[in-house]
What does this fold into?
Amino acid sequence: MSEYPIIRDVVIILLVSVPIVYLFNKFKIPSIAGFLIAGILIGPFGFRLITDLERIEILAEIGVVLLLFAIGLEISLQRLIQMKRLLIIAGGLQVGLTILVSGLFFYFIGIPLNQSIFFGMLLSLSSTAIVLKLLDEKKETEAPHGRIAVGMLIFQDIAIVPMILFVPLLGIADDVSIEMIGLQIFVSLIAVVLIILLARYFIPKIIYYMDRLRIREVFTIGTLLLILGTAYLTESMGLSFALGAFLAGLMISESEYSHQVFADIIPLKDAFISVFFVSIGLLLNVQLMLNVPIEIISLIAGIVVIKCGIVVAVIRLMKFPIRTALIAGLSLAQIGEFSFVLASVGLANNVLSTEYYHAFLASSIFTMMVTPLLMYIAPTIAAKASKLQFSTAATRSDTTDKKLKHHVVIVGYGLNGQNVARVLRETGIPYVIIELNPEMVNRLIGKKENVIFGDVTRRDTLELAHIKNARCIVFAISDPGAIAMGVRLVNHLNPDIFTIVRARDTRNIEELKQLGANVVIPEEFETSLQIFGKVLENYHIPVNIIMQQMAILRSESYQLMVKEGSGISSLTHIDEILAAGITEKYYVEKDNPHIGHKLSELNLRARTDATIIAIVRNGKTITSPSPSEVINAHDTYVLVGDHKSVDRAIQVLNGEG
It folds into this structure.
């Protein structure tokens, strides 16, 4: 076994990682933190089960390459264009201000300028993996703070590429001239352009020909070859492996094969990424933390305060309310996984000393571990801060009717809000829109819509919407916390208002009804009901029976769809209906192959056991048609039989049997 030490090391990593990650997930702590802790325990500063880090670093490098490739694959150029405001303005300001503020802070306490800038770059990145997972679990990805956080995270994921390119310049010797720096940047840009052109025109064609072979193994191995090959090409040009992988992913993301590539590569990425985070934990010097605990704790607190403060400032600058800003700020207050990648590059280029590296690792790991707690308490902190905000946060457009009565208040102007407004506009029912997105508000003002820019959780916003005179309010937003606070406040201001709430699932139905919601519509289960209805239609179940089953499920607040085994017993008369005979109509289209033939030629009853009992032709009904009747275009036939015979008869009439 001593001839294959890398196998022994991988076995140890997996043996320790599995139970730790399981326990962390039980307590809803991100898996990344579990991998880091596993590395600490088995590393040279723990139980010394693994002491030679060079072997593990090779596997970790592959993990970084696959991680960057996956990020490039997930970042669609079209998506970037759609999110351009949140991406460029919010993301750019957050990264730039974090580097500037934290860089100046480190410089003024005596750290060299190049290292100060590098520390600012490390602090500017948050954890995409952790934040997105927690937002998804809380169903807040589409909430205002969720969309802002996602925009900033995507910008950070893209910014890691130029940061990696810039790190070697921070580690250059003092005698290197500005001309040499400029030349290196120019050469790097030329290399990037060449690689993009090669990837753009050759990678999609290669994937196309691999797909035509229809051999799954060739497609998977060939894709992996393209990723590592592009990464190796960039490294041979003096750049980094990670940059090449990112560019390859970005180019493939625009092809029709991106989903297949993603499905094949993601399992490999997850396996190697786990090794990467374990390798980071292996490097953490626990003794350093024990020697200077106050300094480490102060550093952790400083990171959280600086990152949260900058994010809040950026979001407030974009005119979003304090509640949205604080929740997003606390969500992004940790150090991200790409900071570890960047730190490794800095260590290799002598920008980061070993002592600073260990301090960075210790503080970063703990900021990741406290992220679930910060995101859990964020709504409470934001609600209290919102109450302390004495200035009026809401503003009303000039088009808003100040004498609105018996109107509808629409909270959120996404797809659902737009559909509600369209119907109300066509029916002449007055309405006013409450929207948090400043860009959307400006567009609505341009269209002369009644719109209020404000937060529905604030009393002044609802008063501007004349909530006391409103007849109905529709919550069409995707922020569970804001919905709960808004419903409570609305019910306090106007107990007689009819409140309709759009929800992602059924978890908060009863709570929202207790707060004052009259109707809660969970999208997930309404979709299930639509599918359920279409299935019953396909089996020719009468419409009144289908509607009855849907009413049963809705009347129980969808609980029959949640509790396993209870749904079938609640569906009344279905087995009897399926066993009984049914009546169905069939319309003869102008391209039907039987047009001009007699009914006797079809011999329908003998072939299918179904009977044509009537023909509707030119608005007149022919009952008990004779076999000599000729089939005409635009006829409607009334069929009688059981489900199987009617289905077979429709196939025969279509010319399929």
Observations:
- The chain is about 65% helix and 10% strand.
- Residues 178-212 form the longest helix (35 residues).
- The CA atoms of residues 39 and 312 lie 34 Å apart.
